[in-house]
Amino acid sequence: MKKRQSAIPLYDESRETLQSRPVRIRDPEQPSLPFDPIPDRVEPCLALLRPAPPEGPEWLFENKWDGYRLAIHIEPKRVRIITRGGHDWTQRFPTIAEAAKKLGVGTAILDGEAVVLNKQGHADFGALQRSLGGRGGKRASTEAVFFAFDLLYFDGHDLTKTELDVRRHLLSDFLDGATGAVQLSEEAHGDGAELLAKACTMGLEGIIAKQRDRPHRSGRSGDWIKIKCIQSESFMIVGYEQSAAARSGIGSLLLAARRGDAWVSVGSVGTGFKTADAEYLRKTLDKLRTKTPAVPLTGKNYVFALPTLIAEIEFRGWTDDGNLRHASYKGLREVQDNAAVFDMKTLTVGK
Fold first, then answer.
1. Nearest alpha-carbon partner for 181 in 140, 152, 151, 210
2. Cα–Cα dist 302/292, whole Å
3. Angle at CA of residue 214, ends 208 and 216, nearest 5°
4. Please, which of 19, 168, 219, 270 could form a disulfide with 186 given CB 3.0 to 4.6 Å?
5. Which of 2, 3, 64, 102 is catalytic?
6. Does residue 268 fall inside a structural domain?
7. Is residue 38 part of a domain?
8. Calpha distance 133→118 (Å, rounded)
9. What is the pTM of this model?
10. Considering 228, 243, 273, which residue would you say is the last residue of a domain?
């Protein structure tokens, strides 16, 4: 088994880590509250994308993890690992499940992200996909690490109506110092703009800002905000361009985003996928062939496919006519991950 990598923390100029530690001690005299039944599932709070971090003491900051959003349900006789789409993936992450059993808590729901770390201590989405056997694969990942950033239920009590600061404090009580397959996603202490600059310099994906005094609210409420160093979004694959000289006959993938209920072309991507990726994509897209393109495209070597496969694409911006600039393929999103395809309504091109 590979030695588990550690995540690289954010640093200030003195090389001191910009991480906070618990500053409050739990009150052993806290009143005995009635027990709440543990829910089967809690819809996650999702982050809105913003170009710059917010300011003010009401915001806390963390690293933005590039992996799969999961919830760990710790129950008296079992541990369940649930995807963002509500699917049970306990068997896909056995090392995380085993580590959760050993945390020493009776009941809890931990919200966080499963990632695979590279040699630099950065989350590598492609490596996570490969560890699971690719899209549709059934392999179990023993390399993945779960970084917990929220606590939704604990010791028989529903915490979703409790402010984030308190939930984080309780979470840090039993995860502080953990270095195994379940770890604490530590709060990064400092100015948001400064932390974003550090994250970008270190090659991280970005940061997340969260309002300290808010309860857990499912969906994109604006309580959580994501600010990225490099843009990365999910797009629908609507076909490919054939090439006799390229890997497995695929020269590039044709991509589309949403515009309300319709699809709109955002260009293509021809880099980032390995030979094995291209072979799988060609085989799968050929099974999805259609004569009617999902978007109005014409090309002599185009093969159109039903809009089924969702790809995670890294890119450097947008052209004035609404196409991706310097796009690179990162991997396919799982159906169970419930990934949302990028909606052009959120973008103002050319401004």
1. 140
2. 12
3. 80
4. 19
5. 64
6. yes
7. no
8. 17
9. 0.70
10. 228
